[in-house]
Each structure stands twice: as C-alpha cells, then as structure tokens.
Input
Amino acid sequence: MTAATQSPLVLTVVIPTFNERDNISVLIDRVAAALASVAWQAIVVDDNSPDGTAAVVKAKSRLDSRILCLHRIGRRGLAGAVLEGIMASSAPYIAVIDADLQHDAALLPKMLSVIRTHDADLVIGSRYLGVDGLVTGLSPLRKVVSGLANAMARHVLKAKVSDPVSGFFMIRREVVERVAPKLSRQGFKILFDIIASQPRPLAIVEVPYAFGERAFGVSKLDRRVMVEYAGLILTKASGNLIPPRALMFGLVGASGLVVHLGVLGWMLRLGVVFWAAQTTAAVVAMTSNYLINNAVTYRDRRLRGWKLLSGYARFFALCSVGLVANVAVGNLVHGFTGVAWVAGGAGAMFGAIWNYVSTSLAVW
Ligand code: GDD
Ligand code: MN
Output
C-alpha cells in the first residue's frame, strides 16, 4: 500500500478563464494566500484564450503542482468549462470563482467553514445580500436586467436565493455529480441550472460580498448570453415542457411573420399582384427563418458551405409540408368549432410544432 504523501485534498477551486492573462496570476496568488491552512488545488479551465492565458497558468503550475491547467481546444462556453473543472476534481468541496478579480477570494475560508459547520450543500457568494450599494461592477442596464432575472429565477427555483446566477459559490462535489448529465453546457447560468435540476431541495447558505470592478480585459456576458438565460428560465417555468431551442425557434418564427408582412406590404405598394407578392414574402420569410435559426438556435451545429444549401432545401420542403398541415388542421378545427381564431391558432400551432420537430431531426 502506498501512503499519501500529503494531507488529503479538501477543496478544489475551479477558475474558468477566457482572455484573463493579466488577472489570473493575481487571482491564484490571492487564492493561495487565503487558503494557507487548507489542502487545496486550483483547476484553471481555459478555452485556448488567444491572449495566452494557458501559458501563464502552466508556468505557475510547473512551480506549484497544486495548480492545474485544463486547456480546452476548439470549445467555448462558461457553463461547460466550469462543469469540466468540477468533474475533474476528487475533492469533497469545490469552489467556483471568476478570474477577473470581481469575486473576493478572501471569502473562501469562510465559505468552507460555513459549508462544513452548517452542513450545507451549497454556499453562494451573493452580490445582493444585506448591505445596499455593494454592487459596483455592474452597469445600470445590467443591474436592472440582473435584478429581473433574479426575481424570475427565485420564482422558478422556489428557493430564497438572492443571487442564483452568481459565478461565485462553493458546493459539495456529489451535488453536482448527481445532476451533471442534465446540465446545460452553454451560457452563464450553471449555478441556477445546478439548483433547478436537483431531485430534492438543497441546503443553501448565502454569504454577502462586494462585487468589484473587473481588473483587466472585458466581460464576455453579452446579449446572447442573456437571451439564453431567459430561455432557460422559461423552460424551467414550463416544467421542462418546452425546451429552450423550441422557444428560440418560436421566436424566430414570430420574426418571420414580421418579415413576411413587411415584404408583402412593400411589394403590394410596388404594384405586384397579390399571389406573387404573397409567394415572394413567404419565400423571403422562410429564408430568413432558416438563416437566423442556423446562426442562433442551432449555433452549436451551424451548417456551412454546401451543407448550408442542402439544409436550406430540406428546411424549405419540411416547412412547406408544415404549411399544408397548418391549413388542413385549421380547416378541420374550423369545421368542428366554427370559430376562426381558434381554428387559425390551432393550425398555426400544429404547423409550428411540425416545423420545429421535423427540422430539428432532418436539418440540424
Ligand atoms: N473557459 C471559459 N470559457 N471561461 C469563460 C468563458 C468561456 O467561454 N466566458 C467567460 N469565461 C470566464 C471569464 O474569463 C471570467 O473568469 C469568468 O468566466 C466570468 O466571465 P465575465 O465575462 O467576467 O462575466 P461577468 O463578470 O460579465 O459575469 C459575472 O456575473 C454573472 C451574473 O451576472 C460572472 O460571475 C458570471 O458567472 C455570472 O453569471
Ligand atoms: Mn467578470
């Protein structure tokens, strides 16, 4: 039997990075200083940052084997990075902290003692707990959006968590492992997802901290991330009935209606006869739906080159079938109820579901 050469690992600190060359060293030093009396390890998950963050981490790792660089190639995404870092750990406790110094590493020992002594599953560093004016690192717009998202999330989670999208938390490893296959690897809402996916409620403790300004570099949380988050909340609110992709597909479909009416009106004004204008409008709307779905809804499986063209043909064919089904169902329901809007709605709904299901199987 081989004896352990050091005291058993207690805490893994997972640090996701994308272009954090100028921040990561300082953060690791702060983590090390804060955890002087703890058997810790840091796993930096870097998505091959163009600024060379991984090289900086590996240079430190050579001198201190408690530091590890998980250098991912050809992949992006905060949630996925955090999840992989957690899954690489064997420690009983895992902390997740941003690299940009917006989170206070000095809080780690306190979080650890809370998770141990309170017998909690999860300790969240909260930006919104207690003292007002603690948040200085958010723009006014981000503050409003963040507050709204939090209110919705609290409702969905049925848990009193003041900051359910915090990127700063400590958790028992098995709590993540048991739901890992269910978690989304896109976006910024991994904590929310972990809480929402649990079979039974977690024991959660929140500790306040001051969310600081980013040290160097820029935030990667953009509008797309916010849209994704809204999608996840709506999905959970529907009891997991409507997947985020279907919601996105529906939104794109709605945008197609706007395009259709716009083109139709424009061509009629140009004096084009109705059937020709209506046909052109339908083709333009279908094309714009296809391109937007390809770029946004199926971003992760985006078709390019020849595949983009053959996918377009399939999309077109399937949506044409959807249109026929739409009219057929509409007629049928109209025959039963005689109420035009119910019949029209039922037809449109059926067509939309057909379009979503068939194209998700045969196009992307
Ligand atoms: N590996 C990897 N891959 N890391 C990433 C990626 C990615 O695609 N995108 C961002 N990161 C890293 C950043 O380098 C940083 O260390 C951390 O994740 C947070 O990213 P920021 O871009 O600084 O996010 P933020 O400050 O705008 O957002 C903060 O608040 C959100 C809630 O409003 C973060 O704490 C988020 O986690 C949190 O959800
Ligand atoms: Mn940040």
The chain has a mean pLDDT of 88.
